Amino acid sequence: MTDQTDVPHRCFWVSDDPLYVSYHDEEWGKHVTNDHRLFEKICLEGFQSGLSWLTILKKRENFRAAFDGFDFAKIATYGEADVERLLGDAGIVRHQGKIRSTINNAGRALELVEEAGSLAAFFWRYIPPSDERPKRNTSEALRTLGKTPTSTQLSKDLKKRGWSFVGPTTCYAFMQAMGLVNDHEEDCFRYAEQEAERAAFTVPR
């Protein structure tokens, strides 16, 4: 029997699925500056709409294989044959609108790199101010925090540039996962670790 005193406290949303535990412990909330990973995440958040994140997580390697590792320069060249190929791929979510959105967003990502220098330089402009956050990161406070003024602004700015499937809730989930905000519960073992990582982090420019 496992000694429960040896089990670290994790955020309320983590199930006992080993894949989900690993995602929470090793990925969620860590600062990401790699453009391909940023593009992957915002696209997968779009695919997740109406589904659980665990469903997407279990298919993530299939998505990576199907979408050329989320290399947006390659995806931007996809045509109708690729749409048909993806619609026939049982390893991913076969939603035509979301597939076409990913291809569209790849082209918009290339434009954004031209504008800002990198996706990282653009997305890391959207660190929310401290007064936008709950006074304490408790499970009760975080359960109801589906979007914020900053995620709403990011959504508007992306849509203005032609992106799709990037609503305020999708953008906020992206911000949480990529480390723009520390939304681990304060008694989660990762909260203090992420605060230390944040103090040492240099925001991309």
Helix content: 55-70%
Number of strands: 0
CATH topology: Endonuclease III, domain 1
Beta-strand content bin:
under 5%
Can you characterise this structure?
The protein has eleven helices and no strands. The protein has a single domain, classed as Endonuclease III, domain 1. The model has no long low-confidence stretch (mean pLDDT 93). With 205 residues, the protein is mostly helical. Helix 2 (35-48) crosses helix 3 and helix 2 (35-48) crosses helix 10.
Which key features would you list for this structure?
single chain; globular; 56% helix; Endonuclease III, domain 1; mainly alpha; 205 residues
In short:
This protein is mainly α and 205 residues long.
Itemize the secondary structure elements and their pairings.
Elements: H1 18-26, H2 35-48, H3 53-66, H4 72-75, H5 80-87, H6 96-116, H7 119-123, H8 139-143, H9 149-160, H10 168-178, H11 189-200
